[in-house]
Amino acid sequence: MVAWLEANDPFPPVEAALGARSDAPGLLAAGVDLSSRRLRDAYEHGIFPWYSEGQPVLWWSPDPRMVLGPADFKISQNFRKLLRRVVREPEWEIRLDDNFAAVMHACASAPRPGQQGTWITPAIVEAYSGLHRAGLAHSIETWYDGVRVGGLYGVSLGRMFYGESMFAHRTDASKIALAALVAFARTHGIEMIDCQQSTAHLASLGGREISRRAFLAHVRQAVDAAPPVWRLDKGILTALLQGNAADKVQKVPQ
Question: What EC number(s) has UniProt assigned to this enzyme (predicted)?
Answer without folding.
Answer: 2.3.2.6
